[in-house]
Amino acid sequence: MSRLRIFAETTPDAPLFDSRDGDAIAAELRKIGVTFERWQADQPVEAGATAEAVMAAYKSDIDRLVATHGFKTVDVVSIAPDHPQREEMRKKFLDEHFHKEDEVRFFVAGSGLFTLHVDGKVYEIECVQNDLIAVPDGTRHWFDMGPEPRFIAIRFFTEPDGWVGHFTGTDIAQRFPRYEAALRGEAS
């Protein structure tokens, strides 16, 4: 189940807000310009489905976003606990960074933890199957897929180079819980 916890940036052990209600999550994130939606597949997606089958299952939603936002590239990423580069991939996203384009992800399966740093607050969003999150360009954030990642996500890009992170050099991401601790509701 999706979850949003909001913290003051100085108190990673004391959430100001904590909800698993999709409407409440969307309303809170909308205040900072972040889109949060729940999608349903137009057709079933089976385990082991090809990227083409995954994109076909969500074609109407994908087409709507591409038309609205002008995305040039859409792809599917699938990470499993036995992925040989999972540790390197996890580490790549764990430090605070931003993009010069919106970061839009739809979780077809599995889950991950997006954490946003906006106006002195930290927004920790556990995204699960059927969640779409659209983080505006320039928003400082980090992503944690966990030590044993398991997810399939559709990614949307306006830049032809795909994912390009601009790292801030701060240590704020290390002061907040990693995904496995956040799942248990623990502080960092």
Automatic annotation (TrEMBL):
Cofactor note (record): Binds 1 Fe(2+) cation per monomer.
Catalytic activity: 1,2-dihydroxy-5-(methylsulfanyl)pent-1-en-3-one + O2 = 4-methylsulfanyl-2-oxobutanoate + formate + 2 H(+); 1,2-dihydroxy-5-(methylsulfanyl)pent-1-en-3-one + O2 = 3-(methylsulfanyl)propanoate + CO + formate + 2 H(+)
EC id: 1.13.11.54, 1.13.11.53
UniProt keyword annotations, A-Z: Amino-acid biosynthesis, Dioxygenase, Iron, Metal-binding, Methionine biosynthesis, Nickel, Oxidoreductase
Residues holding Fe(2+): 97, 99, 103, 141
Signal peptide (residue range): none
Site (Important to generate the dianion): 105
BP term (GO), one: L-methionine salvage from methylthioadenosine
GO molecular function: acireductone dioxygenase (Ni2+-requiring) activity; acireductone dioxygenase [iron(II)-requiring] activity; iron ion binding; nickel cation binding
Enzyme class: oxidoreductase
Cofactor: Fe(2+); Ni(2+)
Coiled-coil stretches: none
Pathway assignment: Amino-acid biosynthesis; L-methionine biosynthesis via salvage pathway; L-methionine from S-methyl-5-thio-alpha-D-ribose 1-phosphate: step 5/6
One Pfam family linked to the record: ARD
Binding site for Ni(2+): 97, 99, 103, 141
Family membership noted in the UniProt record: Belongs to the acireductone dioxygenase (ARD) family.
Name this protein carries in UniProt: Acireductone dioxygenase
Organism whose genome encodes this protein: Xanthomonas graminis pv. phlei
Gene that this polypeptide is encoded by: mtnD
